[in-house]
Protein 1
Amino acid sequence: MNDSEKFACTSCGQDWQTWYRVRGGGRLFLLCPECDAVWLPGDDRTGPPKHHLGALFGPQPKFFNAWALIEECPAPPAD
Ligand SMILES: [Zn+2]
């Protein structure tokens, strides 16, 4: 991994798009830790985010904390 592979968040521009996964071997996605914007694999990470962290897990109670369910992880191998 080198710095040229880093993409700034296209939504807020305040942080890097970072790989996270759902704990326990769940799906991977790119997350902006600043504004919770999400890009799923296959999404155009240079374009506006199509997803949001709070919506990844479907309808939830008001104080649901999606951060407790995810963890930072290495980038998946490029294919
Ligand atoms: Zn952002």
Protein 2
Amino acid sequence: MLNRPRLVWLFAGVLLGLATGCGSPSSQATQPDVTQAQVRVPVPGSKMTAGYFTIHNRGLTPLTLTGASSPEALSISLHTTQQTEGTMRMRPLGDLTLAPDEIVRFSPGGRHMMISLMQETPLTAGSDMVINLHFADREDLRVPFRISAL
Ligand SMILES: [Cu+2]
């Protein structure tokens, strides 16, 4: 019996990989796709900044993002932003589970990473900061975040 739906699914996955311009080898097809990874240039003198990215669960099972860390940061927290009585408030996001093929965006005014930097290292626009994303169900993902004047 021909297993046509599975063939179509695999083919779609290949097309998706091409469309997103992902250079990873096809053996890594289930690796989460992280794009638009950016860290805001900190205000001069500040050790706090924010990071944003888009994550796509390309696997066939749920993916749970539990946190992030960096050799250049004392701590990184995942936050969400909620409007309460006209005020924007940040709250811890907690574990974030993505269904297969789900895409979640961290963007200014919404979900973000709160980054407490190790020291007042000048993070220059255009350079990269490595951030490791942690998951409940797979090994860490090492992502270069572009330092940007967002
Ligand atoms: Cu925050």
Protein 3
Amino acid sequence: MLDRRDNILFDEIDKDGPQDYSRTYTIAPADLARHEVVNLGPVSITASARKGDLPAEYIAEGSTRFTADFACSRCVEPYPFAGFSNFHLRYRPHPQDAREDAELEITPAELDIEFYTERAIAIRDLAVEQIQLLIPMKPLCDDNCLGLCPQCGANGNREACSCEASIADERWGALLGIREKIAKKRES
Ligand SMILES: [Zn+2]
Ligand SMILES: [Zn+2]
């Protein structure tokens, strides 16, 4: 039987009315399948669940809080991140067939709708979903992060390397080479 502290059980709401939940989970960064997540502290989630307005609809609202270290997508250095989200979710029975599916109109205001097939929602899964929403597509330690030098790998935020000058030299060298070839062709 599912633990009623770790799962929003729709049958329980039907029987006993609205329910409150407050849990803290240890979630491994590997579970998130995002290599940018270096460390993830305990994840706190509180939620209240009740019946919705439609038949078989349930509503869960609450918040998630955690701290983490993300690797910057430019300089690869880990930096601290504090995550907080409020959520407001509507769970509706999963449409049984495509015809019903086609009749469902989801307007932008209803984008928080999720369809369920089982009458239980694991609160840990809910927490993982909220963390996923909070991880930026390209985490940055700072909007102005200078990143790594593509030549020597030096962190531009900490040290100035002299690669740019030598790249310019190489280009100049290549240009001279082309000139020489052109000159040779003319001679022949
Ligand atoms: Zn950075
Ligand atoms: Zn460099």
